[in-house]
Amino acid sequence: MPARVLVVDDVPANVKLLSAKLQAEYYEVLTALDGPRALEIVRTQAPDIVLLDVMMPVMDGFEVCRRIKADPVSAHVPVVMITALSDVKDRVKGLEAGADDFLTKPPNSVSLLARIRSLVRLKRAVDEWHTREAAAQAFGAIWGNGPGVEPVGAGRVLLAEDAHRGGNKTPQLMRAAGQQVAEARNSADVRELVAANEFDLILVDHMFGGEDGLRLCSWLRSFERTRHVPILLMIEDGDYDRLAKALDLGVNDYLIKPPDRDELIARSRTQLRRKVFEDGLRANYHRNLAAAITDSLTGLYNRRYLETHFEIVDNRLRDSGKPISLLIIDIDRFKAINDEHGHPAGDRVLKSIANHICDRLRNFDTAARIGGEEFVVLMPESRPEEAKSAGVRLSRSIGAATFPIDEERDLPVTVSIGVASATAGTLSLDALLAQADAALYEAKRAGRNRVHAAGDPTDDDEADRRAAG
To answer: How far is CA 9 from the centre of its chain?
Structure first.
């Protein structure tokens, strides 16, 4: 996986050695010999990951890490601190400064490279969501700056650990830290629990219920409900091959057994915070994507979505020569509703008509609002006579109903409908809409509350025939 790695160390020999290892794996390597230069490179050259020494003059690694994570532009660049310090307190200090991992010198090559791959993969996922948000923003769909990185409270944690192996300490530590913990005794328990519950973090013992914990991790990553849930693996010290495999499977982080209380809490909080942020990104994107393609009043699709959807349908059907039909539905005398009863009453009618239309569509038809009181229904694989019949049924059902204009009063409403059809691949959406709009005009001209299809005889045609006769 190509990536740009920034190596920061005040000892040139260390920089050279680590750079050589990374370049041998085809990584692009940037280097810095002090903290200020590292921060400048992060700002100007956007590395995918930072490998950061702790003990440096002028500005130590903890401060560099804090500044990287405090800047919204670089907050989600992974930072791995690599240092001779091996005390648990130092690891916890690094994690609390925002580091994604804390490795002691010299780092094992297998686990280091696996960790880089894992963290770069996670960053790329976040980058992709940011890219999608930027694309949505270009369509005017994003309001605000998206989710921030906020402190997290209690999380729902699933613990997959043998009680006799953990001495029952892990659940006690997690509960003491304010987390809600569900315990599983074996893989079957895990499958049952995740099928019925939403979890924010899953802790897995590398040997669990007499089974290989990595097999369980692999299943969790393939199961839809847990695909994006952070996994924290508990592993024996020095088991680098298993750790590398776990990280490549998608495990987010790891703890050496038996876990230290402060490190367990720090790593858990990091993963919980990341899940809150990534869930926020996904929700923000989907919410604003919906806003970009739907009408805010009625919830129907808008003109922009209809255009894209028509192209997809047209391309899918063009080789088969199947028809595409379209209805334009216009509320009769809608201006009078607004004038006599007010715009809130008109909005109620629009929403009710939209719901009425949706309730009577086939599941593969698409309804959109394209104007003030105009709606369109796109009907793939519908022949002209079928589309007109559908329009007649819809017109009659609306005419037989009443629609609320306030909490106490309902109003009878009628619609006029224009119908147009074409063989897929022969007409653009604009051309088909123009035909349907012309048919709608004829329906209005003929007295409203009726359906007219493109190609139907008009009142003028009938008058000409009578005159000729």
So the answer is: 37
DSSP states along 184-232? ESSHHHHHHHHHH---SEEEEESEETTEEHHHHHHHHHHSGGGTTS-EE
Which of the pair, 267 or 133, is modelled with greater confidence? 267
* HSE, side-chain direction, 13 A CA sphere, residue 54: 22
Catalytic residues: 373
User: Could you tell me if 314 and 322 are in contact, meaning their C-beta atoms sit under 8 angstroms apart?
Assistant: no
Q: What is the mean pLDDT of the chain?
A: 88
Domains (range + CATH), the chain: 1-107 (3.40.50.2300), 141-291 (3.40.50.2300), 303-468 (3.30.70.270)
| Angle made by CA atoms 282, 288, 290, in degrees to the nearest 5 | 100
Lowest mean pLDDT among 225-234, 280-289, 299-308, 341-350: 280-289
pTM beyond 0.85: the answer is no
| Distance in angstroms (rounded) separating the CA atoms of residues 105 and 21 | 14
Tokens standing for 291? 């806003």
